[in-house]
Specification:
alpha/beta, Rossmann fold, 5-stranded parallel β-sheet, 10 helices, 40% helix, 23% strand, globular, binds adenosine-5'-triphosphate, binds magnesium ion
C-alpha cells in the first residue's frame, strides 16, 4: 500500500449531518401537479457553508422551508428523503420537526420584520428558543441572551434587549435574527436571502459575523442567495437549482 492511500484510510470518514436524497416537491392537484423541486440530492457536513443559487422560482425557499419543517402546512406533495439525526424529516409529524426547529435547525429569512413579532421586545423574542428547548431559569436565559447580543456585535445589548423591532435598523434586525437563530447552537443554519435587503457594507459585516459564529460552533450553513459573487467568496460548494 502506498503512503498516500495509507493516509486516506487513516482519516475518519465524515458523516453528513443532513442528507437530502432525490427530493421532489410538487404543488397543485393530482391532475395538474407543478413540480418545484426535482431529484434534489445533497450531503451537508458539519461546519461547511454550501451556497444554493438559482433563478427566482426555482424552489430555493420551498427547499429551505421543507428542511426546517415549515412546509408541512402547505398543500404540497414531497417524496425522497431529508435525513437528520437518523430520521427522515419528510415522514416526521409536525411536533417532532418543531423539536428540531431553533434547536438543531435554524432558519433566517430576507425580511426580519416578517419573522419578528412587532409587539414583543427583542430580548423576549431571542429568549423564546431557550424557553422551549432548555431548562435554564429566567436569570440564566437573560444572561445568555445578553451574551448573544454581544456576540452579534450589537452595541448596548441591555438597551437592545428592551427595544422593539421597529426601533432598530435593518442591519440591526438581521443581527437580532442571527442571535435568535444561533442562541441554541444549531447544527444547521439555513440563510434564505438574508442580505438581499441590505447595502454592500452591511452585507459584508453581516456575512463576516455569520461566518465567524458558524465556524466557532461548527454549524453548517445552507446559504441561499442571488448574489453569485458573495456565494463564491463565502461558500466551499455551490449547488444550482434549476427551473423544472
Ligand atoms: N404555498 C405554495 N403554493 C403553491 N405554489 C407555491 C407555494 N410556495 C411556493 N410555490 C411555488 O413554488 C415555486 C418556487 O418558489 P420559491 O419561493 O421556493 O422560489 P425561490 O427559488 O425561493 O425564488 P426567489 O429567488 O424569488 O426567492 C414558485 O413557482 C412558487 O410559485
Ligand atoms: Mg426565495
Amino acid at each position: 500500500m502506498n503512503e498516500r492511500k495509507k493516509h486516506i484510510m487513516k482519516e475518519p470518514m465524515a458523516t453528513p449531518i443532513l442528507q437530502i436524497k432525490d427530493l421532489r416537491i410538487e404543488f397543485g392537484n393530482q391532475l395538474t401537479p407543478i413540480t418545484v423541486v426535482k431529484d434534489f440530492t445533497l450531503d451537508l457536513f458539519a461546519g461547511e457553508i454550501v451556497g444554493i443559487v438559482g433563478d427566482s422560482g426555482t424552489g430555493k425557499s420551498v427547499l429551505a422551508m421543507t428542511i426546517a419543517g415549515l412546509a408541512s402546512d402547505m398543500k404540497v406533495k414531497k417524496s425522497g428523503e431529508v435525513l437528520f439525526a437518523g430520521k427522515n424529516l419528510l415522514d416526521c409529524p409536525r411536533d417532532i420537526t418543531r423539536q428540531y426547529l431553533g434547536k438543531d435547525i435554524s432558519i433566517i429569512f430576507q425580511e426580519p420584520m416578517t419573522a419578528l413579532n412587532p409587539l414583543k421586545r427583542i430580548g423576549w423574542q431571542i429568549e423564546e428558543s431557550l424557553r422551549i428547548h432548555t431548562d435554564l431559569d429566567k436569570e440564566m436565559r437573560y444572561k445568555k441572551v445578553l451574551a448573544m447580543l454581544n456576540e452579534v456585535e450589537l452595541i448596548s445589548p441591555r438597551r437592545v434587549y428592551q427595544q422593539y423591532p421597529h426601533e432598530l435598523s435593518g442591519g440591526m434586525r438581521q443581527r437580532v435574527m442571527i442571535a435568535m437563530a444561533m442562541i441554541c447552537t444549531p447544527k444547521i443554519l439555513i440563510a434564505d436571502e438574508i442580505t438581499t435587503a441590505l447595502d454592500v457594507i452591511v452585507t459584508t459585516q453581516i456575512m463576516k459575523l455569520l461566518t465567524r459564529l458558524c465556524e466557532e460552533r461548527k454549524t453548517a450553513v445552507l446559504f441561499i442567495s442571488h448574489d453569485i459573487d458573495l456565494v463564491k467568496r463565502l461558500c466551499s460548494r455551490i449547488v444550482m437549482m434549476e427551473t423544472r
